[in-house]
């Protein structure tokens, strides 16, 4: 085993037993050709996964490259990360439909990243953990799916299809959602405009609104907000304070100067230095801190609906 660059070892636990393991360096099988040979029937796997975005996080370079090629062969747009920090950077900068992450990387830092993915910190992203065959998982994270390494072509395609299909077939309003209770559950026709320039933050907020039973139009800066309000009436504006071209404070002042009574909710991070009083002085009705928590969003929306006498 040592001559092959590998090792063999045992792990024992009193009263439980012993497990024996070995590893050695070997070429990683390229499953992209196997995927192309699969007969998926109609609709084809490629059409279902076409242009869906995947992020692979694996510190094994060979496995990472194989999974990148495999997912791209299914028509997906895929990026790879060889470290947790690199993966986090990708998630903060771009939107993804699914993340495939090596389960052996879910130590304290990896578990924190996985939990953020599962809590919709980066939007509605499916999390798949990759575990060496026979090792199981020590991860405490509840993933959306598991794949054994070495990954099999059919298993990879089927799991990705199942996850993506679930997203596409999901009803806009979850009837059994625990957050859809009381007055807020009756307010699904509320017209909401969200002003947010960061695409990841935008996706997260839209996902939360969807879970609460709402839909929202989007504006990327304060100028776009003013244009949108001229084109149609809105009951609520979720206003990011820090935006290019025109920030949320200036946009709010202009909205009030124009005579609009729209309920405006500030969205801002504590680290940016905007105080609650500064937002309220500009004419905003309420304030919510980033990262947004869905319970707080539900509470502020309900308060705004009742306080501004909005009819659903």
UniProtKB/TrEMBL annotation:
Pfam families: Response_reg. One of its GO terms (biological process) is phosphorelay signal transduction system. InterPro entries: CheY-like_superfamily, Sig_transdc_resp-reg_receiver. Residues 53-164, 191-305 form the Response regulatory domain. Keywords: Kinase, Phosphoprotein, Transferase. One of its GO terms (molecular function) is kinase activity. This is Sensory box histidine kinase/response regulator. Transmembrane segments: none annotated. The keyword Phosphoprotein applies. It comes from hydrocarbon metagenome.
